Amino acid sequence: MSDETPIDFSSVLASAVHDMKNSLCMLIQSIDQLSQSSSHQSKEQAEELARLHYEASRLNTNLMQLLSLYRAEKHQLPMTIEEHYIGDLIEEMIAKNEIYIEKRGLTIEIDNDEALAWYLDMDLVGNMLNDILINAMRYSKDTIVISTEIINDELHIHIQDNGDGYPQEMIDLIDLPMQDLNFDTGRTGLGLFFARMIAKAHKNQNKEGRIMLENGGKLGGSVFTLILP
Q1: Continuous H helices in the chain
Q2: What is the total count of domains within the chain?
Q3: CATH number at residue 154
Q4: What would you report as the CA-atom Rg of the chain, rounded to the nearest whole angstrom?
Q5: Which of 24, 80, 115, 188 has the greatest count of CB atoms below 10 A from its CB?
Q6: How many angstroms separate the CA atoms of 128 and 194, rounded?
Q7: What is this structure's pTM?
Q8: How do strand 221-228 and strand 154-161 relate by DSSP bridges?
Q9: N- to C-terminal Cα distance for the chain?
């Protein structure tokens, strides 16, 4: 046994995560089909399907984050920076969560110039913002606002809700190094670390992307802001 090559557990885990992510995508598609094809659902059944869709989507997002973190650690995180319409990014996020939005009766307000385009990695930013939207849907009372603006030649994308806002301990995690994350608590900060990593990977001249967490905003709840140079 001593002559065997040591197992690279991180690579094994990354491979397993990839397989689990593919299975979850199939599960989410099946839930979508069930929800759309069943015209005789009771309210309880519809709500249960929406909850299953939400939990599966959240787990799928977490697996994508783990895979991206592994690739970043191996310096193999693919970055494809191209010009994209921000409206397309927002529409895709809403389409992914349409069932949960509908079943929960959430109102999604969008304040975005249809002509607005920016240079970014569509997949990485889309996955990151989708995770933020999933959390906003979970904690919002009934309304979420997704808005964009240009400030000092930087794109600001805001996701706001009318929930109870971010707890202070979560806001304190925003600049915490990866090695200091506490995995023994319910809020590990892994999602925030992923968001920060993706934001910082977007650079332009002497500027790099960043994220902000605050409470208040238009709806009085949590406000997440992605800033891209």
Answers
A1: 9-37, 43-73, 86-96, 98-104, 122-139, 168-171, 190-200
A2: 1
A3: 3.30.565.10
A4: 19
A5: 24
A6: 7
A7: 0.74
A8: antiparallel
A9: 52
